[in-house]
Design a protein that fits this description.
317 residues, 12 helices, globular
């Protein structure tokens, strides 16, 4: 798409009713799209938070507008303290702010790393082990952690408890030392996390490993297979799809990609939403439009995700 076409697409999207189309068109504007500046600035007055971030990201790419940083910081701090409930807006603002501050190292450096080949375990551990790998900036999140089994009747299960008790994953790790990585928005952080994950798994020595990785947590899992870790079942939830993170597919048994119909976080991270690898990765498009939808129990139930993954759900009460 040429710059002129991108500007026309954006202006047409603004005139329509689709919020997703507006966000996607703003994110697609190239640096040379100065002809969209007036429309971008006008749209800010009525933009919802997701579109606001996408517009601010575009304005900085086009004009390096110094006011963008201040507005992104306001959005970031407004949602930083809200935890899981504001995961999507927080991540979008952080990614855009990193770019504005010249601190955007969201790539996998090609040099400077040694290949670490994980040896076969000498002592066989549990027959089956499932683990959730959180994504960027989610190390302190609660959705992926063990939750009390004796929930009050009016409290909904988090994703960990949903997998364990509703979907019957008795082998989901529920100990006191879950795998946690820095969650930094760095290619180097993900590479180091992949090595650490391989070591964490080796300490448990499972015969059968299942990984449920969200966002860049899925990319951490894929990178770990490049380091020699075999994963019998890899479930990727809203990963920013990039070839530099692709798994060594020979070391993956079953692979699934569960994505929202539109994910603005993946978009602002400059990732794709589909692998387009028939026969290697099975794809599911959710009837949902958020980055956190892929780890939301209700979204799983509404879209039949357990059955797609070969799980049996007892259903949410």
């Amino acid at each position: 798409m040429t710059t002129e076409e991108a500007v026309k697409t954006f202006k047409k999207a603004l005139a329509g009713d689709s919020a997703d189309a507006k966000i996607a068109a703003a994110l697609a504007l190239p640096e040379e799209a100065s002809g969209a500046t007036a429309a971008l600035e006008e749209a800010l007055d009525t933009a919802d938070p997701r579109l606001e971030i996408a517009i601010l990201d575009a304005l900085f790419r086009i004009n390096e507008d110094p006011q963008v940083k201040a507005r992104l910081e306001v959005i970031l701090h407004a949602h930083e303290a809200e935890g899981d409930d504001s995961e999507e807006l927080y991540m979008m603002a952080r990614i855009a702010l990193n770019r504005v501050e010249g601190d955007d190292q969201d790539f996998l450096e090609a040099e400077g790393f040694e290949l670490v080949v994980l040896g076969a375990p000498t002592i066989l551990g549990p027959d089956r082990l499932a683990v959730i790998v959180h994504g960027t900036w989610a190390k302190n999140g609660t959705w992926w952690r063990r939750q009390a089994d004796d929930l009050a009747e009016d409290k909904k299960p988090n994703f960990h408890q949903y997998l364990k008790t509703i979907c019957g994953l008795d082998h989901l790790y529920s100990g006191d030392e879950p795998f946690i990585w820095s969650g930094r928005n760095r290619g180097s952080a993900r590479h180091n996390a992949a090595i650490a994950f391989g070591e964490w798994v080796s300490n448990h020595n499972p015969d059968h490993l299942e990984v449920y990785g969200h966002s860049h947590g899925a990319n951490v899992a894929m990178l770990s297979t490049q380091q020699g870790l075999p994963i019998q079942k890899l479930v990727m939830l809203s990963p920013p799809v990039r070839k530099d993170y692709f798994a060594n597919w020979d070391r993956v048994g079953e692979a699934y990609n569960v994505q929202a119909a539109f994910d603005p976080v993946v978009g602002i991270a400059r990732g794709g939403q589909r692998f387009n690898l028939p026969g290697t990765v099975q794809e599911m498009k959710l009837d949902a439009r958020s980055h956190s939808a892929s780890h939301d129990p209700k979204t799983w139930e509404d879209n039949g995700v357990p059955a797609f993954l070969g799980l049996v759900s007892k259903g949410l009460s």
